[in-house]
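Moderator note: this is an archived Q&A kept for reference. The question asked for a predicted structure of one protein chain; the sequence and the answer are reproduced below.
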Amino acid sequence: MKDIKVLGTGCANCKNTVRLIEEVAAEKGVSISLSKVEDLPEIMRYGVMSTPGVVVDGKVVHAGGVPERSKVAGWL
């Protein structure tokens, strides 16, 4: 199971990123653990300066906008 975190303070792009990841995981039938991190110090700990950021299994894979659907599919 992939552990995925979306880093962001609650902006529309952050919510869209969460929804996109949920949609792609459902399409692919992949089980994920998805959480939203809104705590600024915790976001900064990942070194993400532009949100939304995405962390997959502890590694930052994206920052600064809603990722492409194909990119999300590649993570899963």
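Archived answer notes: The longest strand covers residues 2-7.
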